[in-house]
Amino acid sequence: MYGNKSRTWVSKYLRPWSVFGFMKFLLTLFLLFPLGLASSCSSSQGGARPQPAPVSGNGPNNNAMPAVRNPFPVIHVFVALCDNVNQGIVPVSASLGNGDNPSTNLYWGAAFGVKTFFGKSRDWQLVSHTGNPGGAVLERLIFKHRQRDLFMVADAYRGKEISQAMRDFLEAAAGRAGSAIEIKSSTGQTEFYADGSAELVAYVGHNGLMDFELHSPPQARDERGRKAIILACASKQYFDKPLRQTGASPLVWTTNLMAPEAYVLSAAIDGWMVKESDEAVRARAAAAYHKYQNCGLRAANKLFATGW
Fold first, then answer.
1. How many domains does the chain have?
2. How far apart are CA 72 and CA 257, in angstroms?
3. What is the residue range of 237's domain?
4. What is the chain's Cα-based Rg?
5. In a domain, 150, yes or no
6. What predicted TM-score, i.e. pTM, was given to this entire model?
7. What is the dihedral of CA 268, 191, 203, 98, to 10 degrees?
8. What is the pLDDT of residues 30-82, one digit of tens each?
9. Which of 202, 254, 174 has its CA nearest to residue 74?
10. Cα–Cα–Cα angle for 211, 112, 196, nearest 5°?
11. What is the pLDDT of residues 133-153, one digit of tens each?
């Protein structure tokens, strides 16, 4: 999609990070295995007048309520904005690493961020945009797949609220009920629920568990067995225990340093929505990473894992 421009962008902003000895030392210290892939732990709209939609609530009654089943598949993506000041990352440029500005942020508004990448996709249409919906979320986008009855909710969390983003992701994986979302269009009104009502939940961003411990991670509220994607450095090693407690299963997660960018998420969703095997979805994610990072397919296959 981006050709030489994408390689120039990656080379300018991503590849220099991978050579930092600090990151190699940090991962060796925590994981105690040799680095197999040199890449970064930190890594770019359509629809006519999209309408705002409320952020799913987590009020006192939501903890006891079962998550509503939607009549069609829903994906909920939780993005912790890249933040030079409040996250343990190798700093990027001031605009890419401003955790208070979604529009230029590495994981949201930049070329391979969730907002820009899906916004430019021919397969997705932006049907709702909400700025500053409240709490830790700075922006909410809702996309509808153009060929399928499938919605994706994407929330951009303030960088310093990374722990809240991770907790909300795990709460959704565990089945926390969310508020109703209404999408109005020329053909009528559509209502559905995100959070625990989503069949697929995803986290995109820095691996905050490298910096802090998430106390009292949520427990499974039902037996619906949601699928989870975790695009963060070495997410398999760090998220194993908290994800198990939610009852969700890992569709795609990682074994080493990586750039958590939207082309991997897009490739995984493409396989998931047509009901490919978990291994086939993992292979799609690895192929997409190799395509944009030019890291070698063998290395990319080692980087991405599925299942326990």
1. 1
2. 34
3. 44-49+69-305
4. 18
5. yes
6. 0.83
7. 120
8. 443 333 333 346 443 333 344 445 554 444 445 678 999 999 999 999 999 99
9. 202
10. 60
11. 989 999 999 999 999 999 999
